[in-house]
UniProtKB/TrEMBL annotation:
Protein known as: Guanine deaminase
Gene3D superfamilies, alphabetized: Metal-dependent hydrolases, Urease, subunit C, domain 1
Alphabetical keyword list: Hydrolase, Metal-binding, Zinc
Domain Aminodeoxyfutalosine deaminase/Imidazolonepropionase-like composite positions: 28-53
Gene Ontology CC entries for this record: cytosol
GO MF annotation list: guanine deaminase activity; zinc ion binding
Main function: Catalyzes the hydrolytic deamination of guanine, producing xanthine and ammonia.
GO biological process: guanine catabolic process
NCBIfam families: guan_deamin, PRK09228.1
Protein's organism: Deinococcus phoenicis
């Protein structure tokens, strides 16, 4: 039994509907046994009740629930930084050539290691991962993920048109490979499966029907895809599906819009689409760095909230700009500011919720992770800036917990992630000062 002593912050309630949702213990204690939180509260109180628990002293930094990234592409870690293009050109020139390289399982394994290590070192403990087009690359990914201990919800990406021939499959093969992957990996350790057509532009009705067949056969797997990201993409989808009412309808008609669905982007939704997403309790994964880098547009968060659509946050590596959910939160804040009166003011509690608990809800994992309530898994990130860094200086002068949290989102980076746990297991620990290798 371990007793973690730290400044703790979390959002077990939704700050978009419950003001005062940010819960703070400036000198808090979390009692953890077998990876689960058994007690929480002021340190002195938890200590008095459990005098024999082994102490882990994390004073000097801030302990947050592990971040939950609800949209991130495993095959794209090496092609981050492809600036200067919009979505369809970026796919053709920057991204799909790299995705084709994952046909080689050795290459795929190396990329999977780089990807998973980047998640952990940025404090992400759970991720909804857009996979590779190759089933063999997914086997590599899932077996590497099992070794890291991270929670991953991931699936093979399927498409049958308009990408590159070597990335295309058929509905029959998509179904057969998906079924085999689900049977091999779904529910194994901390791994879950997500059925993943790339987007309706590259997925015929036959592919979407094959996805629907998998969703019906395996009622616990998740679903993810892209939607309404870029005006040229939206127009092309309209032409490819002349009978569909809108982009969402291409998924809806196949029965793919449900509580288990997470649709990335949704920068250009219609009111009808928002109403249907809310009615089916499907999530929009907002990816503000990607929307900025690819010039996709300003996400209408306020319209989503008013329609009752659940929203979570994703880095969208490699359309995005890295794995940091702190940076993603800050960019979400910027974009709402830029929307002026149409924007939703994102205070620090909302940013923390979007980066943690909202993701757990999107994935149906809110009873397991996303906050520090008793009974949850101990999934946590310990942020402690290096001494003398700007964040260190600013935190020393922060005059409230809300300001501490705002400072972490404003200035925090991967360098500030000191330790990360999933289910009580340490999955990352920063090298001690002075041990960095200099070049
Ligand atoms: O941001 C995105 N990244 C992708 O890889 C992709 N594929 C289809 N649509 C996409 N959007
Ligand atoms: Zn994406």
């Amino acid at each position: 039994m371990k007793l973690y002593r730290a400044a703790l912050m979390h959002t077990p309630d939704n700050p978009f509907s419950a003001p005062g949702a940010l819960q703070v213990q400036e000198d808090g204690g979390l009692l953890v046994e077998d990876g689960q939180i058994l007690a929480s509260g002021p340190y002195a109180q938890v200590r008095a009740a459990h005098p024999r628990a082994e102490a882990v002293d994390l004073r000097g930094g801030v302990l947050l629930p592990g971040f939950i990234d609800t949209h991130v592409h495993y095959p794209q870690v090496r092609v981050l930084g492809g600036l200067g293009m919009q979505l369809l050109e970026w796919l053709d020139r920057n991204t799909l050539p790299e995705e084709a390289r994952l046909s080689d399982p050795g290459y795929a394994r190396a990329v999977a290691r780089e990807f998973l290590s980047a998640l952990a070192s940025n404090g992400t403990t759970t991720a909804l991962v857009f996979g590779s087009h190759y089933a063999s690359a997914m086997d590599e990914f899932f077996s590497e993920a099992a070794q890291t201990g991270l929670r991953v919800v991931a699936g093979q990406v399927v498409s049958d048109r308009m990408l590159r021939p070597e990335l295309h499959t058929t509905p029959e093969r998509a179904y057969a490979e998906g079924k085999a992957l689900i049977e091999r990996w779904h529910g194994v350790g901390r791994t879950l499966y997500a059925v993943t057509p790339r987007f309706s532009l590259s997925a015929s009705e036959g592919i979407l029907d094959a996805c629907a067949a998998l969703m019906q056969e395996f009622p616990d797997v998740r679903f993810t895809s892209h939607i309404n990201e870029n005006p040229r993409e939206v127009q092309t989808v309209r032409e490819l599906f002349p009978g569909a009412r809108d982009y969402l309808d291409t998924y809806e008609r196949a029965g793919l819009v449900t509580r288990r669905s997470v649709l990335a982007h949704n920068v250009h939704p219609t009111d009808r689409e928002l109403g249907v997403m809310a009615a089916h309790r499907c999530t929009a994964a907002h990816c503000p760095c990607s929307n900025s880098a690819l010039g996709s547009g300003l996400f209408p968060l306020r319209r989503h909230l008013q329609a009752g659509v659940h929203v979570s946050l994703g880095t969208d590596v490699g359309g995005g700009t890295g794995f940091s959910m702190l940076k993603e939160g800050l960019q979400a804040y910027f974009m709402q500011q830029l929307l002026g009166a149409a924007g939703e003011a994102l205070d620090p509690a909302k940013l923390l919720y979007l980066a943690t608990r909202a993701g757990a809800e999107a994935l149906g994992l809110e009873d397991l992770t996303g906050d520090f309530s008793v009974g949850k898994a101990f999934d946590a990130v310990y942020l402690r800036p290096p001494e003398g860094s700007t964040l260190d200086t600013v935190l020393r002068h922060a005059d409230s917990p809300g300001r501490v949290l705002a400072d972490l989102f404003t200035l925090g980076t991967q360098q500030d992630v000191a330790q990360v746990w999933v289910g009580g297991d340490a999955v990352y620990r920063r090298a001690a000062a002075g041990q960095e290798v200099s070049v």
